[in-house]
Please model this.
Amino acid sequence: MNNPYAYTEAEILKVVDETQNIKTFTLRPKTGIGFRAGQFMDVSLPGIGEAPFTPSSNHYVKDVLDFTIMRAGRVTSLIHQAKAGDIVGVRGPYGLGYPLNEFKGKEVFIVGGGVGLAPLRALLYALFNEVNDYKKIVLKYGAKTSKDIVYKNEIDSWRAKAGHVDIEISVDVGDDTWKGNVGLVTTVLKPGLVDVNNAVAIVCGPPIMMKFVTFKLLDLGFKENTVYLSMEKNMSCGIGKCGHCRIGPYYACKDGPVFTYDKIKDLPNIWD
Amino acid sequence: MEKKTYKITKKDLYDLFARLSANYRVFLPYADGQRLDFGEFDPKKEDRIELGGIRQSRPVKGFINPPREKILDTSRKDKRPVILAGVKACDLASFILQDFVFLKGEVEDPFYAENRNNTIIIGCDCTYAKETCFCLAMEGAPYPQKNFDINLSPAGDSFIVEVASEKGENIINNFKMFFKNHSATDLNVRQANREKVSREVRYFIDKRGTPDTSAIRGAVKKSYNLTELWKDFASTCVECGACNLVCPTCHCFLLYDEKTAGGNKRFRMWDACMYNTFARVAGGANPRKRLYERLRNRFEKKFDFFPQILNYFACTGCGRCIEACPGDIDLREVLKGLVTGKWNKPPHE
Ligand SMILES: Cc1cc2nc3c(=O)[nH]c(=O)nc-3n(C[C@H](O)[C@H](O)[C@H](O)COP(=O)(O)OP(=O)(O)OC[C@H]3O[C@@H](n4cnc5c(N)ncnc54)[C@H](O)[C@@H]3O)c2cc1C
Ligand code: SF4
Ligand code: SF4
Ligand code: FES
Model:
């Protein structure tokens, strides 16, 4: 029986502490599972429960998957106790990935907040693979404090890897060690960074951040159908059957989780 | 296929059920005080069998999509095929939706598919209507027209039998001796009963002023700003979820994992969108924090979402939610309020 609710066992190869409450887990599924940047999977602790996460690794790497997971409640707290060698379950991938083909030849303007950088890391890796297909790649990332920045040790290598990548990090609250911008991520979204007529914007972060970033992007001249938002919804089945993730006429698990703003802007409570 | 019709006496039908119960699990409606409920065929309880009447108090969906189904370790279950007899048109209509959700789309739900294939459905005409019935307003009728293998129409001490599928035909062929030819008058008797019950349903619809689907189309969307309407109706809701659980078209579920001595288990369990936790995400954010938003969502799903994606109103007019609600929230009054802009508060307080 082809059971869509069954998971594939995966061994945890490595756990990296990113911040106080975020860890990155590298998993090797018993049978290879491919995905496209932006798709998500369900990670489970056998007998305990599962939760949806987007892989944060390079989608060109087929045998291992990274998940960057914030401790947020019941399942994620228990996942945080797992160690290298432990077995977890993964099923998926589900949903639609980022439409990379539509981004080609354009300037890609990425705005992340907090653990929202996880799916964006998979996107960046995918973009880096074919970096000359994109006119420009800009990443603006906001974290609460300098201690809350994920992938700290990697970000410099991203800068180095590709000539035309522009990365800027902003923290809400500064400290002695922090030399960069202090303020919400919206404060580093300035006119002139990209040619809005030939750019797409990709936003992922907490709902309140996505709301204000979207409004700012529209102010900067982005068209509603060029702003891609990752909608976090309560998900259970991942395959359009359990009804949990419905948002207006869509199921976020199969019609999303990434939506362009024009598709959802008239639906009630999209930022809650 | 051309629907063949026969006639069977009540006595022969009960004998047939007895014979079938050797190889099938046969479920029938039994009268239980005022209610009708499904029970497994038992020759000793023949006097309580009520194939006609109205819909049973519990929806038939539970036989195909059980309230709690084990979906990881499949080493269980009685695999005998099931016969469900006496299923009414309002429950049969709900299969349009349940089948769409569980069988269509990119992935089929193999547990639902197995139960569905494994079940033979014998429908039955309603022989009277209840005050809460409004199938005719929802494009239905008080007699089965589709989604059954065999249908029975009570006519005196016999039933007129209509066969609509291969599964049904096999049963007739295997037990030919029970099935007789009917006369033209028998069909007239069936027609007269159908018209009588339809008049009863229509009377209740008119008495209540229940709008029909043509008036309801688009009404929920337009009502988004009628916040007072939703607040008024939600004011007596106790968030029990009964309206979801008794509804034949509600399909939402939750995957639930459990560690037991026997190993790790995963269940699929019915869920209810009226519960506060239904849409809540980690950290407590919730797109439908307030009860009135959840009540509105329930109507949106039934009367906006499904008409939009399937051209089907996810309400069959069975009236179960009206009976089940401890807050006396009457779906018909809500619909009327949406369409006319005028409503009375639920009479609870
Ligand atoms: C598409 C998508 C991608 C995501 N990607 C990431 C990512 O890359 N990294 C990341 O850190 N986060 C990600 N998230 C968020 C992540 O899924 C949540 O943080 C996670 O679900 C929290 O689970 P929890 O059990 O720890 O939290 P909880 O707050 O305990 O529960 C979360 C939800 O599950 C329900 N629930 C939990 N336990 C039960 C139970 N026993 N019975 C019934 N309901 C229960 C709750 O009602 C709540 O709706 C993503 C979410 C989505 C939708
Ligand atoms: S909404 Fe109420 S009346 Fe309509 S099908 Fe569901 S339970 Fe029956
Ligand atoms: S049955 Fe009535 S009280 Fe219970 S959740 Fe539904 S509307 Fe609320
Ligand atoms: S997660 Fe079940 S329908 Fe989307």
In short: The radius of gyration of chain A is 18 Å. The longest strand of chain A covers residues 8-19. The CA atoms of residues 132 and 159 of chain A lie 15 Å apart.
